[in-house]
């Protein structure tokens, strides 16, 4: 196990060993930049090589590890996360600036993600296929089975530093793959702590490495042919560039969005307001499926805005380690300044700010805009910030067209008590998921999750990730005539 003290950087997890490097990585505290959250190390090129070579060797072990052992191993990781829940939650809060209530939910979700991985490891079913569809194929039957693809290169983002990384490691181990994880440089400490739990769970030596590294070394990982799959969660520009460099390996991309939600005139307005406040402002909007665009039926627009603004005003902005805090800081001052620039641009283009709109260091308050041209960045790009733009509509078809008028298509939501409108949204909205009577920000970890258009490629969710991390193979059995 890693030995960590307040004055010593956390070692990095290299193929089952805890090591240091000459490159110290200081981890900032977004809520208090003067007092760092901690420190670790960036991996050196030779350490990267050691990790990849170990992953290749360990795959000869993991590919033959029986399902019951993989399942038990993943359940032990899940239990270890639950046992250290408070410690892990506080660490996320410190290094990511996430309010402690949300950080603890992320810890709980990560425990679920590993538990689900254990369950899926034990039900990687195949099927039998009758092949006697023509006379020359008489007496033959097909049997399918899934086999692990090999070592996995995984790159995870800052906004869910634990659970989004868990969505890469858990299915990889469930499938029988090995994995090298590049955690986010902004908040790597929580996954290095998970490395301690992985070590204690008895994961085969070399099967998992957790290596913070410079962008140049990350680029090397993307193009490394020893990896058979690249799984990346992050920005669209970076993700699609990675796909172009990935070579022949499979690529799974979970990218950005500017999620739209429709509030129909038949909706339960109190419920819609309450949930959209969560969807828009949780973790200061730094969520891929954060509500950014709200389309409200003209008949209920005034009532919605009155309730929504009152609710946003009541949200508490402050210290993320305080359980009473609703919104903490953005990840850094650069993110807050970019948000300010986008709001200012919207105002210059004719938009009106009904609430918020002014940065204070790393903090940005809940912000509501109306009358904003769709060409403004706050409408057309991914804000990744605590802001929403509200538009009226008169016809459900028009609302759906406005939701679809985006480069993105991760998830969308519709609040309605009209069943026909629900089905129309499901049939016509161009997104990976349509959430009825809830926010597009909703996700539970066993459901298929991913987007279309610039929002990504492939699906996560344990069962669907395992499909990407395995090859389907058929055995044909013939009965001699």
Shape: globular
Neighbour order of strands in the largest sheet: 14-15-16-13-12-18-19
Q: Characterize the biggest β-sheet.
A: 7 strands, mixed
Helical coverage, percent range: 25-40%
Cα(first) to Cα(last) distance is 61 Å
Can you tell me the number of structural domains? 2
Written overview of the protein:
With 481 residues, the protein is an alpha/beta fold. The chain has two domains: 262 residues, Aldehyde Dehydrogenase, Chain A, domain 1, CATH 3.40.605; 186 residues, 3-Layer(aba) Sandwich (Aldehyde Dehydrogenase, Chain A, domain 2). It has 15 helices and 22 strands. The strands form six sheets. A seven-stranded mixed β-sheet has the order 14-15-16-13-12-18-19, sandwiched between helices. Strands 9-8-7-10-11-21 form a six-stranded mixed β-sheet, sandwiched between helices. Strand 15, helix 12 and strand 16 form a beta-alpha-beta unit. It is globular, with a radius of gyration of 24 Å.
